[in-house]
Design brief:
33% helix; eight-stranded mixed β-sheet; 15 strands; 23% strand
Length: 458
């Protein structure tokens, strides 16, 4: 049906003033009195509602009782006029109820707890909070694509079903066509008779395929869903999440750190420029001082800190950490928060981690103890980017894989990129949903996803 988006009405108001318009949407609130009714209508195109004025002596009121029910969907016609209180409103001449809504509609109240809204993910998108979340999620996606497009990267679609575990952590979801009960007694026979003839799973990262693509295309990025069967029931973990992974040839660890910082600053600024209403909403209702935090990130250089120095800072902090700080141990969330929120008060690249706690593909440093890897830590979230120069030496890569008891034969195509014209290259992985948390101030990753997949919840 022909209608005008509410967002367009507000953005181009002068084009519509005192003219007949048609809008569609859902009733947010309604007030009824003897001669006049007021309806707040929202169509999902912006956070603002458009107020409808229903003068009962001028409009067919046969279906008005249904039209005033919160959650009901309407198509209305009327004159778009200025309003001292609301900016603009519509004097209604005709109301059509598209979909009725009963009194037990779950979003009757103006404010609901996030815990309650998580129980109705199919309806919570109509709440103002989630309208703002998904508006920013959309813009953040666009901003990421724009950054890479402007800088000459090619967008690659990596497979979601794969036979290799990029991280080697064994946290993959298995993909099979076998029924729940089979007669197989041996694993190799079970997989040999499956769809692919071998073990398959959902990807935990597109990095390996991305490296192969970069070896012919120079610099690429992937942006898609990844899956980890990790029993981490925290506010920062989900079993299905979105991952941004660029790979750049002829690039070392310092180059990729520079790219990562430029990338983060660009996408934050682009979202702020294009979603001012939503950022204002989050600043007012979700995280006080959010805009100042984001502007500080844009305006200042990130800290670059050696892992060894980070350990010394944490040891000298006088903090009573739950997890002990020792060289060789991975940094925990509490350590990351101290570095970013209390010591430096800005994002921090921690560089040159011990090789034994990092992945097999990371370039080994000359000291034999560390790798050319960095994590970008940000206040409020902790790690948001994992980044490294990749090991370009065939023999060293084989050695690292064998030390971890990895099935080298399953990675032959990956190893061929080191055998045939290997080059220095680097890349990073950005947790898209965590980045959205950082930009909006949202505290739980479950509130950034349309239908969050977490342990025990599908």
């Amino acid at each position: 049906m022909k209608h005008i988006d509410v967002k367009v009405l507000f953005e181009k108001a002068e084009d519509f003033v005192n003219k007949n318009v048609t809008v569609c949407g859902w009733v947010r609130t309604a007030r009824d009195s003897k001669g006049i009714s007021f309806i707040e209508l929202n169509d999902g195109t912006c956070l603002k509602n458009i107020q409808l004025i229903v003068e009962k002596d001028k409009v067919n009121t046969d279906n008005l009782k249904e039209a005033l029910m919160v959650g009901t969907s309407l198509c209305v016609k009327g004159v778009f006029i200025p309003s001292p209180k609301n900016g603009y409103e519509i004097n209604i001449t005709d109301i059509t109820v598209l979909g009725t809504c009963p009194p037990e509609y779950p979003l009757q109240k103006k404010r609901h707890t996030l815990e309650y809204l998580r129980t109705i993910p199919h309806l919570r998108v109509r709440a103002r909070y989630f309208e703002a979340v998904f508006a920013v999620r959309h813009q953040l996606s666009i901003s990421i694509h724009n950054y890479f497009h402007k800088n000459g990267y090619k967008y690659i679609h990596a497979p979601i079903i794969t036979g290799s575990d990029c991280e080697g952590a064994g946290e993959m979801f298995r993909v099979t066509t076998h029924p729940w009960a089979t007669e197989y007694t041996k694993e190799d026979e079970y997989y040999a008779d499956d769809f692919f003839g071998k073990k398959a799973g959902l990807t935990v990262s597109a990095q390996l395929e991305g490296e192969m693509a970069a070896m012919g295309l120079g610099k690429i990025y992937t942006f898609g869903p990844t899956f980890r069967a990790e029993h981490s029931n925290t506010t920062r973990h989900a079993a299905e999440f979105w991952h941004v992974e660029p790979e750049v040839c002829f690039c070392d660890i310092n180059d990729i750190i520079e790219i990562a910082e430029d990338f983060i600053k660009y996408i934050i600024k682009d979202v702020m420029d294009n979603c001012p209403e939503e950022i204002d909403f989050f600043d007012a209702w979700v995280e006080k001082g959010l805009k100042d935090k984001l502007n500080t990130v844009i305006a200042n250089d990130f800290v670059k800190l050696d892992y060894t120095d980070a350990v010394e800072i944490l040891k000298a902090s006088g903090q009573d950490f739950k997890y002990a700080v020792e060289w060789g141990a991975d940094l925990q969330t509490e350590h990351e928060k101290y570095l970013t929120e209390e010591h430096f008060k800005k994002p921090v690249f921690v560089v040159n981690y011990p090789k034994d706690i990092k992945s097999f593909y990371m370039k080994q440093n000359p000291d034999g103890k560390t790798v050319a890897a960095t994590d970008l830590l940000v206040p409020g979230i902790g790690e948001i980017i994992g980044c490294s120069e990749r090991e370009a030496d065939y023999d060293k890569l084989i050695e690292a894989m064998e030390k971890r008891n990895m099935p080298v034969e399953m990675y032959q195509e990956y190893l061929d990129t080191r055998k045939y014209g290997s080059v220095p290259h680097a890349g990073f992985g950005l947790g898209f949903d965590r980045m959205l948390m950082y930009i909006t101030g949202v505290q739980n990753i479950r509130d950034t996803l349309l239908f969050p997949r977490t342990v025990g919840s599908l």
